[in-house]
User: Fold Epidermal retinal dehydrogenase from Operophtera brumata.
Amino acid sequence: MMESRVIDTFLGAFLNLMFPLKMLLRLYSFCILMIDIAWVVVNAVCAVFQAGYELFRPPPMKSLKRENALVIGSGRGVGRELAIQLADLGAIVLCVDQNKVNNEETVECIKRRGGTAYLYTCDITKKENVQKLAAQVKKDLGFVGMLFYCCGIPNHFLPEMKAKNHGHIIALTSVAGLSYIKNQMPLSVAQFAVQGLAESLMEDLRVNKIDGVHVTLTHIYPFIVSEDMPDLVRLRIPSYFGTITPVEAARSILESVRRNFPEASVPKHLLCLGHLLRVLPRKATVLIRDLLDTGVDFA
Assistant:
């Protein structure tokens, strides 16, 4: 009996001691949680104000002189204009396209304007071709500091960018990366993949604290028409959207790249629409898409 009473007394004292300790630990955990929440809220509000401020006072544009810039799809359209304008800004342009004739025209145009460009013919749909391209580029020019792409090839150039903590990857995706396009499900799936890859790259760089390598995800809406394809797009609200040329599109893309924006769109004002479609309920986004339907049909 005596031993039982001693044990009970000891256990009672121990539990009385532990109870306030548990309460203190819970209080401490709660305080830490509140501090973390407050920190997130404050920084989120600051980020919103910063984004608003940058609408009126954007960050200065960086120089591209002597940067080795690889452009996938430089044979025509926006890709060609990107290559030409990059060369005008002083970059050394690596023009990559599977159409050798068109790509040669781009390179010749750049050289006539006093720029520097190199020609590479490659079908990037095959992995082994991309591997050979990466090896050849490294042999010819060494480090590639800028990569303009619309497919899954950054892994062949990213490790060296990380090692040097310098570089810029620009993912070009059409509006199909935000919404389904009629009769073009494979295209939509591929463009969603490009967007997912770009966002994964951003997160990978953030987690690994690599601040010298930038990623810009650019949504190109289907309102860009070449002079030889005037009937490609049928606009439901032409007075609002209008059309822009590949020259203007490339200029807009490069401005966003030179300011290190993580995301951009062509036209610029539709970036907010893309953000809005991500947060609204499904039914609301469907109504907005029907309202702004461009009537694009590539079938």
Notes: The two ends are 92 Å apart (CA to CA). Residues 218 and 253 are 7 Å apart (CA to CA). Confidence is low (pLDDT under 50) at residues 227-233, 294-299. The first strand starts at residue 68 and ends at 72.
